[in-house]
């Protein structure tokens, strides 16, 4: 059993949830697919704090504005539909994106490159290829959605059994499942005729990134216990750096209470490595205001 959370501070997972929530604008239609309790909690935090007029479309069941009493261990549980105002068919969901009415979507990947392309399809080639679960329609949606938030709880690179470092943030994806700002041959979203604006934020366990005017990832913020060197050493390319790096804004007591009430089983910690579950920070002093996850001058 996990140790109880610190009542006077917040955890890494709670900071990431709050940062993800702050990328959501009030009044926008927001969707996330399967599998991430971090993102599920972020959407409910946003709905219950700074974005009460957002339209929340739940993942596996496409429920509209549900109010589940808790987050279950699986994203296929019908408790996530509790209190929903309606439910969409999958065709309606794709129509919303294709018609330009989906404001934000959350995506991740086993690989994420400097342009925000993500890979959840395969690693390697030939006899050494590893098949991954696949995108489940993310390829289409990533072309059409107005804005995309990326996230990963596994930014810190680990060594495989041969001593080779395995990067989550890579120079180039082995396969592009969901599209970012540029293709491998340099074509832009505009040249390809995509409707959506692509990724604008990435929240990781080491830092926070946005995407510059040319579409390349750049480091914007750090946690109190991470450094630029931590980010550079664990990234498979050299990220752009801005002049003044902020400290990622900490959630206040209200936000932490919402997270803990919705996730009494602490399901979201499954997305974090064991050593990261023990990272603790002081509480912030204000509720999230969106849309920026970084604190100014902190």
> How would you name the CATH homologous superfamily?
Glutaconate Coenzyme A-transferase
CATH-defined fold name: Glutaconate Coenzyme A-transferase
Which CATH top level class fits?
Answer: Alpha Beta
Task: Write down how many β-strands occur, each being a DSSP E stretch of 2 or more residues.
Answer: 19
Quickly give the CATH architecture: 3-Layer(aba) Sandwich
Strand order of the largest sheet: 3-2-6-11-15-16-17-18
* Biggest sheet descriptor: 8 strands, mixed
Number of domains: 1
Give the N-terminus to C-terminus distance in angstroms. 35 Å
Number of helical regions: 8
Low-confidence stretches: none
Helicity level: 10-25%
Strand content: 15-25%
Mean pLDDT score, rounded? 91
